[in-house]
Amino acid sequence: MHIHILGIAGTMTASLAVALKKEGHIVTGSDQEKIYPPVSTLLKKTDIKINSSKIDSTIDLAIIGSSFSNFKNTKEEFDQIKKLNIKYISASQFIAENLIKENSVLIAGTYGKTTITSLISWIFCQSNLNPNYMFGGEAINHFPATNISSSDWSIVEADESIHGLDDQAKFLYYPVRFLLLTSADWEHKDSYSTEIANFNAFKKLITNIPEKGFLLINSKGFQTKELSLYSKSKIITYNSSNSDYYLKNIKIKKNYSLLEIRTPRNTIQIKTKLIGQLNFENILAAVAMADSLNLNQTDIKKAVLTFKGIKRRIEKIIDKKNIMIFDDFAQSSNRIKSTLSAIKSHFPKRNIKVLYQPHASFIQHKESLKDFKNAFSLASEIVLSKLNYNNIIDKNNRSTAKDFRDIIGQNLIYIPIDEDIVNFYKQNLKSGDILINMSSGGFEANKIVKSIINSLK
What we know:
The chain has 457 residues and is an alpha/beta fold. The protein has helices at residues 11-22, 39-45, 72-83, 91-98, 113-126, 195-207, 224-228, 277-292, 297-306, 333-346, 401-408, 418-428, 443-456, and strands at residues 2-6, 26-30, 49-50, 61-64, 88-90, 103-108, 132-134, 146-147, 153-157, 178-181, 214-218, 234-238, 246-252, 257-262, 267-272, 315-320, 323-328, 351-357, 381-384, 412-414, 433-439. A hairpin with a 2-residue loop joins strand 16 and strand 17. Helix 5 (113-126) packs across helix 8, helix 5 packs across helix 9 and helix 12 (418-428) packs parallel to helix 13 (443-456). The longest helix is centred in the middle third of the chain and has 16 residues, at 277-292.
């Protein structure tokens, strides 16, 4: 079958394209004119042609990704697909119909989804269960982000955003039997106009869980307990001393951390090379899900120890001249606090600096900045890169550099020109410093960090 994917450069659609090519399909796709690594590298390595195929009758199916409406060429291609009566389907619907199986495990919530989904998938793979799975990131272990198999198990990262052809939350397209919910903060303001609308999307997901399934919630997650009241299935909890699963003790060693996890039937010790409380809680969540699904605890422990994490999730990218640089996806205040806390807990005597590149759409709204008041309290210095806006937000409601400084304080320095940022760090990074790049941007955002690293050489 010839499958063409509009918006192929997304994290989900790119990995889906690779999985479909592996299945034996002819796969082509289109996106914006310039596609950058790691997506461009992944697609090129798999010999998937991008922006080079004409929309004609040779296409059997078109999969429409979330970002297709952002670009002129993909919008025109979609019009041509409809004109030629080519069968098409949204990426969310395709995943629901072709990847999700009877034993469906969904991981939803405001934070931790990618790491938890990839770790649960890794545990299943290391247990020789060969599940169907999909997560929106790049695993440092170099196992693919999407796998299609004959197993009746599926593990999928379930996002609440609404984009592309979707008219409801992505996760509402996915059949669910076992749901893990980390939190339900109102993050996607471009998808939900009110907090109650956001709450109702999660509520509907929970009511979709059948009685023969279960709901696993983070006891400390925002609104998770309130949402669990709508479940007709069994409820399992993690992350507090009165939960079914909790971290009883944490010992941070030089090359690993030892987590003592209390389960409903025993206490197990888990070794991990990941750092930080948030990662420890992600591991706890994954262990709780795997153990609740009756996977072997020895297999779980071995898998966690060998799991290296996800790229751009507190990823150490250089340690040179006694200067360390980490890369992280953090954009929201909760994620910023967790990342800084993780670094500080492992390197308490080091000076922490932050390069904050504000790419997430919600940051463009002035109202969103009120949560940032204490987000950067563990950093001695914050450099804010150029602010970019879409045309949807009214100028009076747009966040500005002054708004950031008013909320965060005088430790914030606004440097809108990339070259000036590189020169700033070239002059000001000192031995003992830790620099954390916080960005959800792509190639252009990473170019700044690469230039900073080159300046250290």
